[in-house]
């Protein structure tokens, strides 16, 4: 089962986008393709580095790297390499589409993506989804979810999470007390308090 989380490939070092672009061009130029070189480069660079390679490839050769991959590769190997070249937010938009498509909704995928992306990334995901599928991501998600889970996702989709620019320890303590009172010190649980805090505080804040 595919897990739609952040990539686990860390930044490759030492990294040289121009050298990688030249190596990829050499691997795909002429008769035959050096698939091992393509595989070794694209699977050991993280997404941001792959985007730099694509930019360098176009600057050096006036060619689109993804188009060349599609032209020179075939089958599942082509699909994998082309998928690796997608910017992260495009991959996320496709993953969300898959998560709410057909019978049943993959709530884990919705949570993993929307709860872990920055406000700018969420905005990019929403824009790509609208362009690719001519539909509002928020409308699709609200149509497939319900209750407090739906409300939390709607909050996350507003992309108003606090920026990760340091942690206010006093606010962390205040939120902890609010959540404690909302969950432990009353009959039932005040879900709105949980939704507001979990949906708007920064990731660093929540991890404290």
TrEMBL record:
- Gene3D superfamilies per UniProt: Annexin
Keyword annotations for this protein, in alphabetical order, are: Acetylation, Annexin, Calcium, Calcium/phospholipid-binding, Cytoplasmic vesicle, Phosphoprotein, Repeat
Primary location recorded for the protein, binned into one broad class: membrane
Membrane topology field: Peripheral membrane protein
Q: What residues form the membrane-spanning segments? A: none
- Per its UniProt record, what InterPro entries does this chain match? Annexin, Annexin_repeat, Annexin_repeat_CS, Annexin_sf, ANX4
Cell membrane as UniProt keyword: no
> What Gene Ontology molecular-function terms does this entry list?
calcium ion binding; calcium-dependent phospholipid binding; phosphatidylserine binding
Q: Give GO cellular component annotations, separated by semicolons.
A: nucleus; plasma membrane; zymogen granule membrane
Where, per UniProt, does this protein localize? Answer: Zymogen granule membrane
Its UniProt domain note says: A pair of annexin repeats may form one binding site for calcium and phospholipid.
Q: Which PANTHER family match?
A: ANNEXIN (PTHR10502), ANNEXIN A5 (PTHR10502:SF26)
What the record says about family reads:
Belongs to the annexin family.
Q: What is this protein called?
A: Annexin
Task: Give the species this sequence originates from.
Answer: Ifrita kowaldi (blue-capped ifrita)
